Amino acid sequence: MIEAKDLTKKFGQQLVFENLNFKINDGDFISLIGPNGSGKTTLVKIMMGLEKKTSGELSLDNKQSIGYVPQFRNIDLDYPLNIEQFIRLNLKFTFSPTKKRENDELIKNILEKTGLTQLKNRPLGLASGGEKQKAYLAQALLNDPKVLILDESTASLDVEVKMQLMDLVQELNQKYNLTVIFITHDYELTKKYTSRALFFQNKTIKEVNVSDISEEMFEMGG
Ligand SMILES: Nc1ncnc2c1ncn2[C@@H]1O[C@H](COP(=O)(O)OP(=O)(O)OP(=O)(O)O)[C@@H](O)[C@H]1O
Questions:
Q1: What is the CA radius of gyration of the chain?
Q2: Does ligand 1 have an atom closer than 6 angstroms to the CB of 47?
Q3: Residue pLDDT, tens place only, 87-99
Q4: Shortest CA distance to 20 belongs to which of 200, 218, 222?
Q5: What is the pLDDT of residues 130-151, one digit of tens each?
Q6: Minimal CA–CA distance to 183: which of 48, 86, 91, 52?
Q7: Quick check: 2 pLDDT over 80?
Q8: CATH 3.40.50.300: which residues of the chain?
Q9: Topology (CATH level 3) of domain 1-65+145-222
Q10: Is the Cβ atom of 16 under 6 angstroms away from ligand 1?
Q11: Pocket of ligand 1 contains residue 39 by CB under 6 Å
């Protein structure tokens, strides 16, 4: 479980958000929505320990690890790694034959889980947007995180490819009780896939029913 109590963040004099109070339970598929600049990425960076809170509390189960999938940016056509090699970047290098075998097994499993087995030798630079995004997802899942954060991960994909990626994430959520935190500006995907929603507004956060979400919530001033 992840729990925030009066969580506040400032950058210098700039207040990003104050007094956030919420709980995210194991196995939740929850969206973080709100306008540009309202603090969604800053909040997940605090969860991942990449940014410091200013005050309040944020507690995470100690054993809980977090996988993070950003929106993919352009990768050069001549990027030197293929899909499997790219995923392997998240493994610790080892000289131990036993560890090597364990790593190979991990890679094999994750390629299967994400439907990338047939594509493992494809150079990442030549992969489609959806394939690249799956490779990011596979890399994030490699160390068996309990929480997966998708940070606008579907933003640059076609509708059909977005749905495929989300179907895969939904399957992982249901099969492995993976907690999914979905940062998005996509109204349709929020409605279709998430069961809870946290909405950033007026420098704080409130829970809204997914059925009450409107398109304006993605645009209104923060
Ligand atoms: N390292 C930083 N230093 C100073 N200000 C920052 C820093 N990171 C973010 N900010 C500011 O904090 C505010 C929240 O940014 P954040 O990226 O968390 O918003 P967001 O809700 O994720 O936005 P978007 O939907 O556009 O991705 C913005 O005003 C941003 O400019």
A1: 18
A2: no
A3: 999 888 888 888 8
A4: 200
A5: 899 999 999 999 888 999 999 9
A6: 48
A7: yes
A8: 1-65+145-222
A9: Rossmann fold (3.40.50)
A10: yes
A11: yes
